[in-house]
Design goal:
5 helices; Serine Threonine Protein Phosphatase 5, Tetratricopeptide repeat; mainly alpha; 101 residues
Length: 101
């Protein structure tokens, strides 16, 4: 059996099932199946509440696609608590903070 190699460095040491589920969630977002993507990402978060790629994808989903800016900021806050130097999360958080208040 030949295992597929990831086309990127698995920085967060995600399991094969996490990689598959993240890929599926991202595909669902691209297909505009936002409810299904949200459901899958939230299910993944229940299994690992500190999974930075899941938290980031939830922030992206809520901010860009659902315009739920406070929720997006909440997820980016969680990313930054776990990884304070995450520039992508910091920039995205700043972008959505402009829409709050």
């Amino acid at each position: 059996m030949i295992l597929m190699s990831t086309p990127f460095e698995n920085t967060y040491d995600l399991s094969e099932s996490q990689l598959v589920d993240l890929g599926e969630a991202e595909e669902l977002i691209l297909k505009n199946s936002l409810g299904k993507a949200e459901e899958l990402l939230l299910k993944m978060l229940e299994l690992d509440d500190e999974c930075i790629p899941v938290l980031s994808n939830l922030g992206h989903l809520y901010g860009r696609y659902l315009s739920e800016f406070e929720t997006a900021v909440k997820y980016y806050d969680r990313v930054l608590t776990l990884e304070p130097d995450n520039a992508w999360a910091r920039d995205s958080r700043r972008r959505y903070l402009r829409y709050i208040d």
